Amino acid sequence: MNNNCYLKYAGMFGLPLAMLTLGISTATAQTQGKFDRKLLLEQQIELPSNSVHAKTIKVTIPAGFKTPDHTHDGPGPRYVVKGKLKVIEGDKTGVYSAGDVFWESGDVMSVENVGKGTAELIIFELAQPKQPEKK
C-alpha cells in the first residue's frame, strides 16, 4: 500500500476514532483549547485496491445474546462503547470491555455479550468496493 493511500485512510479513521474514544466533540475540543490523542490500536494492512468501501456500524447486543458464526464484508477495528463482549474468531478468543479496541480480520467469528447489561459495539469496516449488478 502506498503512503498516500495509508494517510488517506489514517486521516479518515484516526481523528474520528480518537474523538469518539475520548468522548468529545470538535466544539468541545475547540472550547477547552487542549486536545489529547491516545493510540488505541495500530494494525498494518494491505488493501485489495486503492478503492475501499468503508462503513461505520453501531451494534447493540442484549445481555446474554450470542451471535451465530458469521463474517463481515471486511476487516477493521472494533470499539466497545459499553458492556463486556467475548469474541471468538478462528482459534482466537478475546474478552473486551468498554473502551477496548480490537482488530477483526474478517474470518468466521461469533460475539457473545458476557456482561450484565446491554453492550454496544462500533464496527469500522474496510471492504472491497461493491460491484455494480450485472443485468
UniProtKB/TrEMBL annotation:
Origin superkingdom: Bacteria
SUPFAM superfamilies noted in UniProt: RmlC-like cupins
Segments forming domain Cupin type-2: 59-122
Signal peptide span: 1-29
Gene3D superfamilies: Jelly Rolls (2.60.120.10)
Pfam families to which the protein is assigned, alphabetical: Cupin_2
Keyword terms: Signal
Protein name: Cupin 2 conserved barrel domain protein
Species the sequence originates in: Methylotuvimicrobium alcaliphilum (strain DSM 19304 / NCIMB 14124 / VKM B-2133 / 20Z) (Methylomicrobium alcaliphilum)
